[in-house]
């Protein structure tokens, strides 16, 4: 009877297991949304709805829920985490800053939204990810030249920004026409962190200060050094989105029209909806996730993969690269994929040609150097997950009987050798018999 | 001045030739053999300068067989020279046997390296 119970539990758990993040199916499936007020669930429902219609399984929890946990029995219960709880001082349960950073280190994705009430905890997580929010707790981003005209707000903290990162893979192929509304705190990128990217930056006239107080000293963050929304792709391909504004994702901003000051065009709808949809697709690996399969190499004209090459062999190298589209693997087409034939430094560096169906191939001659080489593909492009392949292959010199013999150009040398031998023979006879 | 230099040179060569004429025949034979080896080596170096050093091992073995032959022959000449007091205890037959053995070893190596 107990056995039946276990079996039943396994059967029930099996489908859950199938839908989780895997190599073959890299899109996140289970997402934990932490909020500090359940009202966010309704005030940001359009964003959550778009995630749900794309097949995500959202789990809403209060950030101080005492039963909160990210992993059980060493396995993570979620593939992605949305932190819409800017004012939380401490998470409930077993979750803390270290647990969230471990979650990211394990290759999972994170969306973090702060606002002017951002707690030290949220600021700390952002700092660990490579962005520093303005330390002044009262400061928000103010811009007197590119604010959105509004009937109720006159302090120019509602910003209409359209300086996006120039990357189709992060923001989608369709250009975002309308400006994105932003109201919240600014951050700067840690210059020591090369993985963090500004996705939405402030205009050169923006600054970060307390709008209610008189500005007595120069603001610490000014101009386009202020980042409004940033992304990080870690070396383990975990993706992080950090926004200084929680309202950016809200229904109010998604549905609102926008008239940027100084512009004659009034957009019926802000760019926020397209922006948050496209960037969440990127963060949750529905776009820009590459895989390389069928890495093959062989001697020219042969089919099987040899265990060793000889110097000056002609060889062929090929691999297939696919991009995950959210539902299936599509061929990835680019003309800048390169392979290295590498031993301490690349001896051969060749750009691979592709057949428009994802198959990349090239052929080259093994250099006249023997040793242990590697076929290396190091492909790192903005927004795409990095491909890093290395395959070791030894290269041997000619065998003793593989050298060319009886070369016409060497005949004089052969002749000279034999003539000295003959000379030796004649000399011996003459020398011995001349007396 | 020039005239005296030329006549001096002529006198020098003449005296050298007359002195060389008194050299024993077996040493003259060795000298001829050395000249043959050195000329062969020079021809090969000139050929390499024209054609290039591609079968470099063949070139090396060709030239080294000549150089080795010349060196061994000079060694033999030193040992069998009656005027050389250093080797007066060494019988010329023993010196010639050494010479033959060394040549055999040299040509064995050359054949292996010729390619």
From TrEMBL, chain A:
The keyword Transmembrane applies. Residues 297-435 form the OST48 middle domain. Residues 1-22 form the signal peptide. Subunit of the oligosaccharyl transferase (OST) complex that catalyzes the initial transfer of a defined glycan (Glc(3)Man(9)GlcNAc(2) in eukaryotes) from the lipid carrier dolichol-pyrophosphate to an asparagine residue within an Asn-X-Ser/Thr consensus motif in nascent polypeptide chains, the first step in protein N-glycosylation. N-glycosylation occurs cotranslationally and the complex associates with the Sec61 complex at the channel-forming translocon complex that mediates protein translocation across the endoplasmic reticulum (ER). It comes from Dioscorea cayennensis subsp. rotundata. It comes from the Eukaryota. Keywords: Endoplasmic reticulum, Membrane, Signal, Transmembrane, Transmembrane helix. The chain crosses the membrane at residues 411-433. Belongs to the DDOST 48 kDa subunit family. GO terms for biological process: plant-type cell wall organization; protein N-linked glycosylation via asparagine; unidimensional cell growth. It is a single-pass type I membrane protein. This is Dolichyl-diphosphooligosaccharide--protein glycosyltransferase 48 kDa subunit. Coiled coil: none annotated. Component of the oligosaccharyltransferase (OST) complex. The keyword DNA-binding does not apply. GO terms for cellular component: oligosaccharyltransferase complex. Pathway: Protein modification; protein glycosylation. Residues 30-283 form the OST48 N-terminal domain.
UniProtKB/TrEMBL annotation, chain B:
Keywords: Apoptosis, Endoplasmic reticulum, Membrane, Transmembrane, Transmembrane helix. This is Dolichyl-diphosphooligosaccharide--protein glycosyltransferase subunit DAD1. Pathway: Protein modification; protein glycosylation. Signal peptide: none annotated. The chain crosses the membrane at residues 32-50, 56-76, 96-114. Its main location: endoplasmic reticulum. Component of the oligosaccharyltransferase (OST) complex. The keyword Transmembrane applies. It is found in: Endoplasmic reticulum membrane. Coiled coil: none annotated. Belongs to the DAD/OST2 family. It is a multi-pass membrane protein. It comes from the Eukaryota. It comes from Dioscorea cayennensis subsp. rotundata (White Guinea yam). The keyword Translocase does not apply. PANTHER family: DOLICHYL-DIPHOSPHOOLIGOSACCHARIDE--PROTEIN GLYCOSYLTRANSFERASE SUBUNIT DAD1. GO terms for cellular component: oligosaccharyltransferase complex. Subunit of the oligosaccharyl transferase (OST) complex that catalyzes the initial transfer of a defined glycan (Glc(3)Man(9)GlcNAc(2) in eukaryotes) from the lipid carrier dolichol-pyrophosphate to an asparagine residue within an Asn-X-Ser/Thr consensus motif in nascent polypeptide chains, the first step in protein N-glycosylation. N-glycosylation occurs cotranslationally and the complex associates with the Sec61 complex at the channel-forming translocon complex that mediates protein translocation across the endoplasmic reticulum (ER). All subunits are required for a maximal enzyme activity. One of its GO terms (biological process) is protein N-linked glycosylation.
């Amino acid at each position: 009877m107990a056995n039946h119970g276990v079996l039943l539990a396994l059967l029930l758990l099996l489908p859950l297991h199938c839908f989780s993040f895997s190599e073959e199916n890299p899109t996140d499936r289970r997402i934990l949304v932490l909020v500090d007020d359940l009202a966010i669930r309704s005030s940001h429902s359009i964003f959550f709805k778009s995630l749900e219609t794309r097949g995500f399984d959202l789990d809403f929890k209060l950030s101080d829920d005492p039963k909160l946990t990210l992993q059980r029995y060493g396995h993570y219960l979620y593939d992605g985490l949305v932190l819409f709880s800017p004012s939380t001082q401490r998470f409930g349960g077993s979750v803390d800053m270290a647990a969230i950073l471990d979650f990211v280190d394990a290759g999972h994705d994170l969306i973090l939204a702060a606002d002017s009430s951002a707690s030290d905890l949220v600021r700390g997580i952002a700092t660990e990810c490579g962005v520093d929010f303005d330390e002044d707790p009262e400061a928000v981003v103010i811009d007197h030249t590119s604010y959105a005209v509004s009937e109720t707000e006159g302090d120019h903290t509602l910003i209409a920004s359209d300086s996006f990162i120039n990357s189709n893979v992060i923001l989608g192929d369709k250009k975002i026409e309308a400006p994105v509304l932003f109201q919240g705190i600014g951050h700067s990128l840690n210059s020591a962190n090369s993985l963090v990217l500004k996705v939405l930056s402030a205009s050169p006239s923006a600054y970060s200060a307390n709008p209610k107080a008189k500005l007595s000293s120069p603001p610490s963050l000014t101009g386009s050094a202020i980042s409004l929304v940033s992304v990080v792709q870690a070396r383990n391909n975990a993706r992080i989105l950090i926004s200084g504004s929680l309202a950016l994702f809200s229904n109010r901003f998604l549905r609102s029209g926008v008239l940027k000051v100084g512009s004659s065009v009034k957009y019926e709808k802000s760019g926020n909806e397209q922006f948050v949809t496209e960037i969440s697709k990127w963060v949750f690996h529905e776009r820009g996730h590459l895989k390389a399969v069928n890495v093959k190499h062989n001697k020219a004209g042969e089919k099987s993969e040899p265990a060793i090459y000889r110097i000056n062999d002609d060889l062929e190298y090929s691999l297939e690269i696919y991009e995950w589209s959210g539902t299936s693997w599509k061929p990835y087409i680019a003309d800048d994929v390169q392979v290295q034939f590498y031993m301490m430094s690349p001896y051969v560096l060749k750009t691979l040609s592709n057949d428009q169906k994802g198959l990349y191939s090239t052929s080259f001659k093994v250099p006249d150097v023997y040793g242990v080489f590697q076929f290396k593909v190091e492909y790192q492009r903005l927004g795409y997950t990095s491909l890093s392949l290395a395959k070791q292959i030894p290269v041997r010199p000619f065998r003793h009987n593989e050298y060319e013999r009886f070369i016409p150009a060497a005949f004089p040398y052969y002749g000279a050798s034999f003539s000295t031998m003959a000379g030796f023979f004649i000399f011996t006879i003459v020398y011995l018999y001349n007396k | 001045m020039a005239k005296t230099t030329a006549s001096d040179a002529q006198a020098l060569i003449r005296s050298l030739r007359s002195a060389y004429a008194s050299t024993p025949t077996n040493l003259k034979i060795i000298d001829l053999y050395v000249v043959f080896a050195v000329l062969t080596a020079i021809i090969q170096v000139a050929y390499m300068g024209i054609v290039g050093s591609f079968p470099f091992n063949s070139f090396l073995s060709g030239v080294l067989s000549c150089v080795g032959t010349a060196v061994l022959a000079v060694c033999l000449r030193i040992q069998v020279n009656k005027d050389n007091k250093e080797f007066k205890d060494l019988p010329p037959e023993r010196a010639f046997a050494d010479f033959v053995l060394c040549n055999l070893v040299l040509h064995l190596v050359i054949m292996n390296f010729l390619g």
